[in-house]
Amino acid sequence: MNDQAHTFERPHKWPGTMTDRERFRRQMHYESVDRSFNCEFGYWDENFDVWPMFRDNGIRDNDAADPFLRFDRKAEVRPLEMYPRFERQVIEDRGETVIIRNEEGLLAETPKDGHETIPHFLQSSVTTPDDWKRLKEERFRRDDPARRVDVAALQRQHPESRDYPLGVHCSSMIGRIRDILTFEGLAYACFDYPDMVEDMVETYCVLVEDYLDQVLPHLTFEFASGWEDICFKSGPLVTLDFFKSVVAPRYKRIHAKLKQAGLDIWYTDTDGDIRALIPIFLECGLNTLFPFEVSCSGHPADVLREYGPDLRMMGGVDKRPLIAGPAEIKAYLESLVPWVERGGFIPHVDHRCPPDVSQENYLYYLDLKQRMFGLTATS
Fold first, then answer.
1. Rounded to whole angstroms, how far apart are CA atoms 237 and 183?
2. Residue 198 pLDDT > 50, yes or no?
């Protein structure tokens, strides 16, 4: 690893003849491009300590990593969700772990050393309809002045003359609710308090609609995004009936506003095996998969072939070949070539890159990705 620090050369931005904004728009609409849009999903926190290129250059987070590696730029604006959020507090020190109250108000046990792991949740701030009523009144007020958007400031920050794609974040219809209730709490609440859960979904939807009403008339967006993280390795965390009857109608309302504004690229971040949700997503206007975890959902070719040009994808590069080494990386990227060439598919690692991937393998991957999908591959 020390040798890598001495030999590391910061990558150059991939050459091109289009702006990042034009390239993204055309690629996601199956139109010809100079080269693939070049971006990555990011890295585990440990990577910033383990990889010399980050550690020795003061790169401590994903926001700093993207410009450091000179990826194509994209940006988002997003609504407030829970506001104000809870103050993060340490409740108890248990030696190697601590009990914290997190920003969603949950009690969770986490490692004291801060390494990334799924927290062990101990208690939710919401278990009954009365709990939700109180939380809604305190932290989900539609009339909170903080929810008033400074449109002029956004226009100055993201002028129409910009050369990068801009997205509007459409929050979460069920993933954040899962965060508030915990996985087990959501499972019970869907049966014990279905009206409460639906009101929680409705609340999130209305806050997104309010935000869209403020920003869509005044800014031009290239995409809409969201966050759900509502699947695990064997499928959705909630029933398909629940998704169809409670979540889908809200997606459709949001899509109606996006469509009226001429916005037709929409993805939501959902890990795990998402295949059962794809037909529902498409019906609701969510036409782009992200980040498409290969170990759970299969090879990108399978779903792209099944759904045709109605479906797009961002992600889809299996982490496991990056751990294995150059031969496996090359074979996997070669399997993506016809799908990237077809359009509607921006390849990048299918989640945040873990520290199991060596810096050497990752830089080989970035270099090979440019040679396969950059301007030099087609010129």
1. 8
2. yes
Report the domain count for the chain: 2
| 141-153 pLDDT, tens digit each | 999 999 999 999 9
Give yes or no: residues 334 and 257 share one domain.
yes
Domain that holds residue 113: 87-124
Quote the CA–CA distance of 78 and 92 in Å, as a whole number.
34
Q: What is the pLDDT of residue 22?
A: 98
pLDDT at position 116 is: 63
Query: In this structure, are 52 and 98 located in the same domain?
Result: no
pLDDT for res 189: 95
Do residue 103 and residue 189 come from a single domain?
no
Q: What per-residue string of b and e applies to 160-174 under the rule 16 or more CB within 10 Å gives b?
A: eeeeebbbbbbbbbb
Output the CA torsion 195→196→199→201 (10° steps). -110
Q: Rounded to an integer, what distance in angstroms lies between the CA atom of residue 326 and that of residue 304?
A: 26
Of 124, 151, 179, the residue that ends a domain is 124
Burial (Cβ within 10 Å: 0-12, 13-18, ≥19) of residue 292: buried
Q: Is the pLDDT of residue 34 over 60?
A: yes
- CB 110, CB 119: distance < 8 Å: yes
